[in-house]
């Protein structure tokens, strides 16, 4: 049996995916989680074979979850199932150790086949996204991305500085670097462009 843990913050989608996977005779959904922090606790408790997760979730994102699984060497395969058909997300997912990346509008039977494939040691990546992912590089480094995300979500430079334990001047420098790299006029435009490209 392939032991699956499912992390998805939308209850209806989580229920539908769980019901779908429970129809498969070789799969067991051992737990479901409504946010990233709950998912991480369950990964450590249940040690599933495969973690199926969305990207955007409260607490921890799917990408942050994948990084934790990789860093702890838990042996759990991570498959992203998302609405975000953005090459930037796929690039970052692969860098975080994700072995599967599927879109929510893919045919239902593709998910079970993808889980079998990654469980056997393969990869299951949407082919068009795989091509697009390497066409445009993400210019931001991790710290610029972190600062830009918080600033774009409405935090002041002081609030970002306090949360990340940086000086306000350092935060302004990171924002300035991000704005320059993205060739836009201000941090709101930088945030919008980076979101659109899947770099945040």
TrEMBL record:
UniProt keyword Thylakoid, yes or no: no
InterPro entries, A to Z: CheY-like_superfamily (IPR011006), Sig_transdc_resp-reg_C-effctor (IPR016032), Sig_transdc_resp-reg_receiver (IPR001789), Tscrpt_reg_LuxR_C (IPR000792), WalR-like (IPR039420), WH-like_DNA-bd_sf (IPR036388)
Gene3D superfamilies named among the record's database cross-references: 3.40.50.2300, Winged helix-like DNA-binding domain superfamily/Winged helix DNA-binding domain (1.10.10.10)
Key words of the record: DNA-binding, Phosphoprotein
Phosphoprotein listed as a keyword: yes
Single Gene Ontology MF annotation: DNA binding
GO BP, sorted A to Z: phosphorelay signal transduction system; regulation of DNA-templated transcription
Ranges for domain HTH luxR-type: 133-198
Pfam family, one: Response_reg
4-aspartylphosphate modification, residue list: 54
Domain Response regulatory stretches: 3-119
PANTHER family the record matches: TRANSCRIPTIONAL REGULATORY PROTEIN DESR, TWO-COMPONENT RESPONSE REGULATOR
Protein name: LuxR family two component transcriptional regulator
Organism this protein belongs to: Tahibacter aquaticus
């Amino acid at each position: 049996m392939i032991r699956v843990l499912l992390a998805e913050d939308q209850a209806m989608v989580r229920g539908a995916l769980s019901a779908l996977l429970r129809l498969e005779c070789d799969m067991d959904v051992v737990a479901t989680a409504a946010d990233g922090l709950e998912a991480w606790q369950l990964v450590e408790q249940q040690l599933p074979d495969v973690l199926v997760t969305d990207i955007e979730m409260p607490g921890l994102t799917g990408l942050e979850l994948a990084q934790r699984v990789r860093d702890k060497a838990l042996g759990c395969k991570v498959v992203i199932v998302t609405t975000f058909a953005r090459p930037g997300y796929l690039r970052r997912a692969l860098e975080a150790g994700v072995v599967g990346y599927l879109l929510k509008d893919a045919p239902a039977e593709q998910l079970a086949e993808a889980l079998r494939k990654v469980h056997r040691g393969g990869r299951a990546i949407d082919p068009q996204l795989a091509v697009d992912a390497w066409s445009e590089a993400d210019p931001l480094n991790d710290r610029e991305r972190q600062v830009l995300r918080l600033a774009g979500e409405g935090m002041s430079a002081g609030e970002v500085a306090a949360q990340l334990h940086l000086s306000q001047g350092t935060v302004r420098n990171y924002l300035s670097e991000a704005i320059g790299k993205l060739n836009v006029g201000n941090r709101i435009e930088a945030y919008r462009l980076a979101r659109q490209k899947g770099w945040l």
